[in-house]
Structures are given as C-alpha cells and as structure tokens.
C-alpha cells in the first residue's frame, strides 16, 4: 500500500468554506434549500457535460460522473458539426427522450448570427439538426445559448447577442420554443434588468424566484441577479468578487447535488483552470473555488444536466456485512480504539478481530437513501478530522450528516465507493492502512483505494 502525501486537515477545508455561515453547513435546514436525496438502491445519479476542447473548438467530448466531481470520458469527439465550429455547448434532455445540444457556431473573431442544434438518443452519438438565425435586426453575434426548462414545461434558450453598432456589447435574450420538435421559436425578448454588457447568462429557478448567473464583460466577474419572471425585471444584487471566485471567469452552470446543496461550475479562462464551488444557503455564500479533476485544462465552457438512472450499486440494509478493500483483498474495515483500520483478516483471525470487522448496514441517518454503518457496540462510522472513527450518535444534525455516506459505483464488479454526504466529492479511502475521507483525485488509483466490496460478515 503506497504512502502518499497526507490530505489537508479538516481545519484547512473549513477555512476554505469560511464564507459559509455556521448554520449553512447543516444541509437542508435553511429556508429555500431544497431537500434533494441520494439515489435509491439500484439507481445512480448521473451528471453529463459536453464541453468543447481547449485545443479544438471544432468538436466536443462527452463526460459523465456520478458525483459531479469525478467526470470520466464517455466519448471523445462525440459530435463535430458539418460546418462551422462548436463552442459553449448546452445540453438538456427533452420529454421526447432525446438529448439536445445548442451551441455557438463560430469562433469569437467571426460574425455569428446563428446558433446550432444537434440531437442524440444516447449522449454518445449526435446528429446535426439545423443552424438557427436569431431574428434580431443588425445582429452581429449570437453566443453562448443556454437551455432553460421552466416549471410549466416550456423550453427556452437564453442567448447572448450583440448588434453591429457595438459588436462586443452583449445582452441576454430569451427564445421560447413554440413546438415540441424545437424547430420553431418565439421572437427574442431581452431579459429586463440584466442589461447590456453581460454574457453567458445561466438561470435556475427555486420556488417562484429565477436566479441568474451572468458574466459582466467589463469586470470579468460572474454576477448574480434575481427576478419573479423569466424575462425579468432582474435585480443584480451581487457584483465584483462577491463570491470569492475571482475575475476572468465565464460560462457558469448551476446544478443541485444529492445532498440539497448547489454547485456552480465555471470556466477560469484567465488561468486555464475549470472550477466548481458549492453553496448551502441558496446562493448567498460559496465555498472556495476548487479545480475540477480530470477535465480542468482540457474542457471549455459547458453546462451540466443531472439524471437518476438505473444500474447503480445496491446494498441491503439492516444486515451485517464486512467490507473488503477492492485492491487489497485480505484487508477489511475494522474498529480499533474507536478508529478504523484495515488489518489482515483471515479464517484464523481471532473471534474478537472478526467481530471488529463486522458492521450493521442501516439507512443513512441524514438521508434514508444513503447508508450508515453501526458496530456491535451501537456506535456509528463517521468522519472526523478526515479520519473514519466510531462514535455514539449524539442526535445532532451534524453527526447524522458526518455518519451518512452515498453509495457510488466502485472500481470493480461488486465494489462500492462511499461518498461523504456533507462533503461532496470526498470519499472513504484507505491510506497507510487506515480509513480516511479525502477529496477524489480523479485517478484510477484513488478509485481503487476508495472501493470496498461488501461481503458476508466475519463475525
């Protein structure tokens, strides 16, 4: 088992989240925070992105992830349009079962009055549909179209447009589909209140409020606005470096995580890094921006869609199991002095050693679709200072979340990865023969180290 540099301390992570009020860490307890849930047994969460490449804006790759952090390549060069370019691709799944792309059709230097459309049944193989000329008088550029499906089911595209009198001053417009085939569109309507010199406007809705994340092209910061109608009027209430993301940021995309928090992804084109940041108080404060593993430096400007699909890991609850390391098959979880260790356990091990490697799998204390693990003394596995340990349940919300894990597909058949419920992207993994909770590195080695096979209990 290779020794690796230690992960930052829990204090370091908390400093990175210093912008969050203390109550915000207690997920789902603040007004306006939706109560999302982990996927049920046998199902999985799936996030999909379709970015164009830093090295090539003539094609797009498709990546997928089950945790919104570790994106794996589904297909390279999955779609190349028959002419022009493909930039700033936005993806969504329509009620007809197909996935649709809309995208910028030209490079940033060119006059670009069209946006492109493509369709796929499986996200891997795409067919060109058409290029659509946005009907705005004296249009110079139509950029960064973004899908938005409203609560009434209406399908919209938010597109940033400029006119020939000032080709670099963009204003967001709404196009509304007027047929289910997505081939006919309403006249463009400018989003009131956001105004000129804003681009890459991305909108999500919670309750009756529309939340817009939009790049100010002068300051290069992502700003935040709200409205009670899709077309506005919007009130921009956060400007400058309000979220701590820095400047020269663009292409925001916002998605809700399984634990109810919200994650924003954005293109840090100023430094060549792709970032994500999380909020647990409905967009008021955000964690420090973190580089997205695997795709950062390769991917450019994408949006994210989230689905619940079949085929995820399944594990019965209210049963006893032992947990075997997927890549060190003689080593198992074991309680030792209220901590966890991965000792060798064999048929000749003592009864006490076997009992210490036996756990009851129960419904997650914070989310019944998640999982918690109880030892023979009635204590629960929870993370503390990035280490696994067993403690008595003190009945607090913090303990419940610390002791809840979401099942993600493991590195081999039958293996499961256990993601921390309240630290998305952090997994139980072995390190120096101990269980720790660490942020995914996006490598095959990390996936192996964080994969465990539930087997018949030793005890």
Which structural traits does this protein have?
459 residues; 6-stranded antiparallel sheet; mainly beta; 4 helices
Task: Write a brief caption for the model.
The chain is mainly beta and 459 residues long. It is 5% helix and 45% strand. The protein is elongated, with a radius of gyration of 24 Å.
Q: Explain this structure to me?
A:
By secondary structure, this protein is mainly β. The protein is 5% helix and 45% strand. The protein has four helices and 34 strands. It has helices spanning 10-16, 351-356, 397-402, 444-449; strands at residues 43-49, 52-53, 56-65, 72-79, 87-93, 99-104, 114-120, 126-133, 139-149, 155-163, 166-176, 189-190, 198-206, 209-216, 222-227, 235-238, 250-256, 262-268, 273-279, 290-291, 299-300, 304-310, 319-325, 334-336, 339-341, 359-363, 371-374, 380-384, 387-391, 405-409, 416-420, 426-431, 434-439, 451-456. The longest helix has 7 residues, at 10-16. Mean pLDDT is 90; it is low at 1-34.
Write the layout of secondary structure elements.
Blueprint (H helix, E strand, L loop, with lengths): L9 H7 L26 E7 L2 E2 L2 E10 L6 E8 L7 E7 L5 E6 L9 E7 L5 E8 L5 E11 L5 E9 L2 E11 L12 E2 L7 E9 L2 E8 L5 E6 L7 E4 L11 E7 L5 E7 L4 E7 L10 E2 L7 E2 L3 E7 L8 E7 L8 E3 L2 E3 L9 H6 L2 E5 L7 E4 L5 E5 L2 E5 L5 H6 L2 E5 L6 E5 L5 E6 L2 E6 L4 H6 L1 E6 L3
Antiparallel strand pairs: 1-3, 1-22, 2-3, 2-21, 3-4, 5-6, 6-7, 7-8, 9-10, 10-11, 11-12, 13-14, 14-15, 15-16, 17-18, 18-19, 19-20, 23-26, 23-34, 24-25, 26-27, 28-29, 30-31, 31-34, 32-33
């Amino acid at each position: 088992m290779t020794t690796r540099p230690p992960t930052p301390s829990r204090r370091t992570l908390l400093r990175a989240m210093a912008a969050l009020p203390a109550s915000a860490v207690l997920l789902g307890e603040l007004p306006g925070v939706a109560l999302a849930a982990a996927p049920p047994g046998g199902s999985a969460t799936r996030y999909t992105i379709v970015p164009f490449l830093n090295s090539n804006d003539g094609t797009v790759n498709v990546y997928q992830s089950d945790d919104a952090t570790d994106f794996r390549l589904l297909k390279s060069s999955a779609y190349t349009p028959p002419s022009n370019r493909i930039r700033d691709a936005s993806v969504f799944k329509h009620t007809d079962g197909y996935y649709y792309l809309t995208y910028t059709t030209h490079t940033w230097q060119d006059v670009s009055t069209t946006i492109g459309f493509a369709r796929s049944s499986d996200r891997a193989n795409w067919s060109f549909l058409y290029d659509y000329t946005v009907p705005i008088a004296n249009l110079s550029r139509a950029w960064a179209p973004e899908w938005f499906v409203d609560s009434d089911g209406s399908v919209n595209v938010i597109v940033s447009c400029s006119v020939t009198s000032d080709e670099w001053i963009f204003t967001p417009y709404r196009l509304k589909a007027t047929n289910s085939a997505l081939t006919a569109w309403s006249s463009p309507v400018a989003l009131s209140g956001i105004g000129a010199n804003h681009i890459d406007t991305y909108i999500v809705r919670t309750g009756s409020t529309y939340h817009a994340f939009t790049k100010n092209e002068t300051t290069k910061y992502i700003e935040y606005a709200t409205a009670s109608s899709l077309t506005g009027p919007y009130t921009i209430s956060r400007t400058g470096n309000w979220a701590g993301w820095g400047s020269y940021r663009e292409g925001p995309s916002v998605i809700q995580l399984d634990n109810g928090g919200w994650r924003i992804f954005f293109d840090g084109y100023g430094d060549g890094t792709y970032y994500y940041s999380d909020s647990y108080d409905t967009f008021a404060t955000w964690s420090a921006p973190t580089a997205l593993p695997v795709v950062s430096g390769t991917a450019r400007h994408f949006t994210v869609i989230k689905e619940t699909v079949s085929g995820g890991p399944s594990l019965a609850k209210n049963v006893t199991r032992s947990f075997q390391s997927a890549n060190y098959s003689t080593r198992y979880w074991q309680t030792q002095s209220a901590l966890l260790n991965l000792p060798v356990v064999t048929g000749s091990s003592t009864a006490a050693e076997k009992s210490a490697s036996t756990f009851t799998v129960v419904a997650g204390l914070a989310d019944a679709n998640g999982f918690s693990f109880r030892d023979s003394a009635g204590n629960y596995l929870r993370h503390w200072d990035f280490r696994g340990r067993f403690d008595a349940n003190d009945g607090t919300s913090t303990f419940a979340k610390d002791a809840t894990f979401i099942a993600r597909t493991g590195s081999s058949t039958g293996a499961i990865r256990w993601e921390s419920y309240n630290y998305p992207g952090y997994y139980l993994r072995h390190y120096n023969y101990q269980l720790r909770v660490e942020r995914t590195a996006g490598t095959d080695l990390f996936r192996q180290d964080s994969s465990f096979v539930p087997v018949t209990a030793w005890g």
